[in-house]
Design goal:
- The chain has two domains: about 50 residues, Homeodomain-like (Arc Repressor Mutant, subunit A, Orthogonal Bundle); about 140 residues, Tetracycline Repressor, domain 2 (Orthogonal Bundle).
- The chain has ten helices and no strands.
- The longest helix has 27 residues.
- It is elongated, with a radius of gyration of 22 Å.
- Pfam families: TetR_N.
- Keywords: DNA-binding, Transcription, Transcription regulation.
- One of its GO terms (molecular function) is transcription cis-regulatory region binding.
């Protein structure tokens, strides 16, 4: 494939991603993508076997970028606790990005389309795997002391992200600080670490301890 043709495909994929983020997968059309890319409708279909192929390429590209953004976020950060904090903060964002908006569209479309179900499963798998790496490295360095299997902690963190992110759909009920704190508290309890720096009048999260036996009390 010639460089000019490859660039045109990338431009059309970017235009399709923009249309999907704004109008949804179901409402994306050849005409809308052509207008966004400032080309003819014939040019859109010339570079892809079908419009469905273009949409699927756009969705795959967004999912790849969504996962890559999370990975880049922690590149170069050596402190395991800070890496985990950054991951959680990114997982419960203040605003819906175009990438996250399209992921929501995939959730909606997955019910009727096996291809999108695979895409959705890929998103979850990548996020869980990235958390696992952060937790395993942190555990090896002594920063975390997991109280359950690392894979289960990673899955729960992704599940909390997904659940709280649904509130982004209703801006009037978006309480990001509370949702973020709840997730950080779960991570603290599951990993026996401190992620929340207490304020001047705020006590730190207590570490569970074993109650003394009756013989020890005597």
């Amino acid at each position: 494939m010639r460089a000019k043709s490859r660039q045109r495909r990338q431009d059309l994929i970017a235009a399709a991603s923009s249309v999907i983020a704004e109008h949804g997968i179901a409402n994306a059309s050849v005409r809308a993508v052509a207008e966004r890319a400032e080309v003819s409708t014939g040019s859109v279909l010339y570079h892809f076997e079908s419009f469905d192929q273009l949409v699927m390429e756009a969705v795959k590209g967004v999912i790849d970028e969504f996962s890559e953004q999370r990975r880049r976020l922690i590149d170069g950060v050596s402190d395991p606790v800070e890496r985990l904090r950054l991951m959680i903060e990114a997982g419960i964002p203040e605003h819906i990005s175009d990438e996250l908006r399209i992921v929501y569209q995939v959730v909606s479309a997955a019910q009727d389309n096996p291809h999108y179900r695979r895409n959705l499963a890929l998103v979850v798998e990548r996020q869980v795997a990235l958390y696992e790496i952060v937790l395993e490295v942190g555990t090896a360095l002594g920063a975390f002391r997991p109280r359950m299997e690392i894979h289960a902690i990673a899955e729960n963190l992704v599940a909390l992200e997904d659940a709280y992110d649904l509130y982004l759909i209703d801006p009037d009920d978006w309480q990001r600080d509370r949702y973020l704190r709840n997730t950080l508290l779960f991570a603290e309890l599951a990993l026996d670490c401190t992620l929340i720096t207490p304020g001047p009048s705020e006590p730190s999260t207590p570490t569970p301890s074993t109650s003394p036996t009756s013989e020890e009390q005597q």
